[in-house]
Write a structure and sequence with these properties.
Layout: E1 3-12, E2 25-33, E3 39-44, E4 57-58, E5 63-66, E6 68-70, H1 82-89, H2 99-108, H3 111-127, E7 130-136, H4 143-156, E8 159-165, H5 174-189, E9 195-200, H6 207-219, E10 223-228, H7 236-243, E11 247-250, H8 256-264, E12 270-273, H9 275-281, H10 288-293, E13 298-300, H11 314-325, H12 329-336, H13 338-343, E14 360-363, H14 369-373, E15 380-385, E16 388-392
Parallel strand pairs: 1-4, 1-5, 6-7, 7-8, 8-9, 9-10, 10-11, 11-12, 12-13
Antiparallel strand pairs: 1-2, 2-3, 5-14, 14-15, 15-16
Helix pairs in contact: 3-4, 4-5, 5-6, 11-12
The protein binds zinc ion.
Zinc ion is lined by residues 72, 74, 227, 303.
């Protein structure tokens, strides 16, 4: 069944060649997708008859945006860390070590429980408009548990990331653990992975270890990404750029030199900002607008995880990007859709160009500005993925 929508009050295409401004906005628009779920046409609604014989669905002047691309999540885990959150809110600072407690709960959980938990969070994300989701392992931290985490991730998305190097378990020596990650663990996880990632930070892995891990993944055919400068300034961002990673994530303590490096590699390496993690750890917010003005390609993502950012909501993250990271609503929308797609090296999602997937969100709002303007409010009327309405109704 093909899809035809008209009377779209405000259509964000992210294709400047077919609409106004950098977001390619068309007012009073129509959109047609084929029966394979690909977009055939977007344009002024009075032209829709030229592109479909079907009776178009009336959107009653609502806004439509591309489906969100959440390029950074850790949704394969068991248990929660509400007590740690409570302690942190009482004043105890966030450190990487809390991962250890989720590791124990994850190891103790059945495959079925791990899978149900991840599916629940993926569905929660879909309900707020996320149509492409990256999912990492990283709470198993043994060959067996990383492999089953990756299997669960693969059952949810094709954007799967092996993050055996999330943290070294306390009962293993750091160097032995790195050997395990680049050896047996990588081999076991490879069939389920598209990407490899490493937490390069104080209390996690050194720059040297991170380089070894990313190089081993790249050699095995995986794309690379890095958790960089979340807990303090480090050489991780510059190293990521040098290695040509698809994305340097967090960038909480980014320096001017890091910004320069990222700007010089803006076609290759995206800076993925995770403002909900700053919010929930009471960390400093990097200046997203300044980074964009300096030429950095910026994505926004949730970092959904039980320790430092337990949210699946991209609209909420957009609000934080605007209100606390200085981004304009246009920049935040672009970074949450096309920016996320670029962080995953995808061109078929994150935009509504002809040939792209018909992944879109129908908003109960007259424009995308309302997403930032009304923080925490669900304004999703319907979510369409691959041309089919999967949440709400059209
Ligand atoms: Zn993360």
């Amino acid at each position: 069944m093909s899809l035809a929508l008209n009377n779209i009050g405000h259509l964000v295409t992210n294709d400047p060649s077919i609409g106004n401004g950098p977001l390619g906005i068309i007012n009073n628009a129509g959109l047609v997708a084929d029966d394979e779920g690909k977009i055939i046409w977007c344009g002024p609604q009075d032209q829709i008859d030229q592109y479909t014989e079907a009776q178009p669905i009336d959107c009653y002047g609502c806004a439509i945006i591309p489906g969100f691309v959440d390029s950074h999540t850790h949704i394969v885990f068991a248990g929660d860390r509400a007590t740690e959150f409570e302690a942190r809110m009482e004043g105890i600072p966030y450190e990487a070590g809390g991962i250890q407690s989720t590791m124990m709960a994850t190891r103790a959980a059945s495959d079925e429980l791990l899978s149900l938990n991840a599916q629940h969070l993926a569905y929660e994300a879909l309900c707020s408009g996320t149509t492409t989701l990256e999912v990492k392992s990283g709470y198993g931290l043994s060959v067996r548990d990383e492999e089953r985490s990756m299997r669960v991730a693969r059952s949810i998305t094709s954007e799967t990331t092996f993050l055996g190097a999330h943290l070294c378990p306390t009962d293993v020596k750091q160097d032995d653990y790195v050997d395990l990650v680049v050896g047996e663990m990588l081999t076991a996880c490879l069939p389920y992975a598209k990407w490899i990632d490493v937490f390069c930070d104080r209390g996690a892995f050194s720059a040297e270890q991170s380089r070894e891990i990313l190089n081993a993944g790249a050699k095995a055919g995986l794309g690379t990404r890095i958790h960089a400068s979340q807990l303090g300034p480090s050489g991780a961002i510059k190293m990521g750029v040098e290695l040509g990673v698809a994305s340097c994530d967090h960038c909480t303590h980014i320096t001017d030199l890091d910004i320069e490096a990222l700007a010089s590699a803006s076609d290759t390496t995206v800076a993925t900002l995770l403002p909900a993690a700053e919010l929930c750890t009471r960390g400093p917010f990097p200046d997203g607008r300044h980074m964009i003005e300096q030429g950095v390609t910026v994505a926004l993502a949730t970092d959904c995880n039980p320790g430092s950012s337990y949210t699946t909501s991209m609209p909420f993250v957009m609000s934080l990007g605007v209100i606390l990271m200085g981004m304009t609503p246009d920049q935040a929308l672009w970074s949450s859709t096309q920016g996320g797609a670029q962080a995953l090296r995808r061109t078929d999602v994150g935009n509504l160009c002809a040939g792209s997937r018909a992944d879109l969100v129908v908003l109960d709002a007259p424009s995308h500005i309302h997403l930032a303007y009304r923080p925490g409010v669900n304004q999703t009327r319907a979510v369409v993925r691959g041309g089919k309405c999967v949440v709400g109704a059209l």
